[in-house]
Amino acid sequence: CDKQEWLLMPDTPKNVATNNQLAICANRFNYSFNLKGGSYLVDTACSSSLVAGHLGKVNLLERRWDPLEWHLGLGAGVTLTVGCFIGSCAAHMLSPIGRCLTFNATANGYNRGDGTAAMLLKAGAHDDQRYAFFRGSQMGQDGRSASMSAPNGPAQEKCVWGAIREAKMTPPESTVWECHGTGTSLGDPIEIGAVRKVQIKMPRLEPLMMASSKSNCGHLEGSAAAMGMNKCILMVIKCVSAPTIHLKTLNPHLDHAAFDAVFTTDAGPYKYKQGHAQVSSFGVGGTNGHAIFWGKGPAPVLDFKRILLDKMRKAPTRIVADGDDPSQWEYSGPSFDASPDEQYRVVYVKDPLTGEETFTYEKVLREAEPIEFYCTTGSHNDWGEDRMMEGDVPGLFYQEVDMPDSGELEFRILGDGDPDKAIAPETSTSRKLEPIVGPSKDLRTSWLVTAEPGAAVRIEFFAPDKGPKSIMWLLLKEE
């Protein structure tokens, strides 16, 4: 809370010196627990707790004179009076609806939240106590921006690069990016633009999962970064990206189409059993912070694509030599004169009686003409074709449908309304992050959505000219 809020509380002793000093917030903790190490308070507004973690790391790494055993950083955000609400409203910072609509087209400010979070840092090997590795961090300042509180994209990018260099990693190694994401029309696009400039330096193998905790618990201000860092630790030990709520339509000003990223609205598991989670926090006065965590999950994640490739190597395609002319032999593999850019669909069959494994290759014919529009087909329209509307972002198509009486919506996408240009997940799933295949004919997989019968669902399909396709669906609230 702001010190002035505490002093305005009724029945607060004004004549006690310790009540009027911000430093006492930290010093009282040492006094209560008889701690002898350094004790200080960091106030950089919203980025305070991340900067405190960064300074704690610096103190732990200084081992020459008085090496520390551990460093405890705590962040606290408590709203005690209406004073800061009035000031924030006067500055048009708060959302009129009391929600952090992070990444949303309707982002109109943030919502203040209450919360406390802490993080204990230790230097050295502590395998029996460690949840995650604190691989790197950095802090910086905007300097002169458009205004005192306006974010500065290049300064944010520089801060991120400092943490990446300390971690000795590359941008494609990022798995989840926990954004500051206050849900403002100016701040969100600038932050995503800085992320884009970092990520486009090298190609990625998997999409970067984007998230923000402010949609879940509000803006905790002084404790916001501590909440984000704790969330990163939980994500790397569970190998799951936590969802961002209230996301209905992406802000058209987000520069997300220029790099491989997905905004997770449901829990998205990692493809691998380990990964990096990065968190940014930007103070309203221009002090920026960024931290990187690494961890691994409790159990390995099965790579089904690699398992299938191993099976293909062990069970090569069958050749039946019938006659003297090899061109007439029965062969189920790809063409002998196949060019490097040709695509094949591999069909794997295992005989339930003999256990024999066979593979056949079906050549995927690429469409000569680009797809002009997309339709949905599924249980909502008796597997007919309903044309999707074009969104504000090039390549974005959407449609609003009502949930069937069964409470389950099963659907896939058709290019140009043609069943031979079906687009669907690799396997039938309710996950939005499942790899998308197509356009192709004879696809029978589909996405599955469950909700109350009659509920309105918005389906968004993003098919850029270059880059991977993505799917998203959101439940619409009744007006």
Automatic annotation (TrEMBL):
It comes from Alexandrium monilatum. Keywords: Phosphopantetheine, Phosphoprotein. Residues 1-295 form the Ketosynthase family 3 (KS3) domain. This is Ketosynthase family 3 (KS3) domain-containing protein. One of its GO terms (molecular function) is fatty acid synthase activity. Transmembrane segments: none annotated. GO terms for biological process: fatty acid biosynthetic process. SUPFAM superfamilies: Thiolase-like (SSF53901). The keyword Signal does not apply.
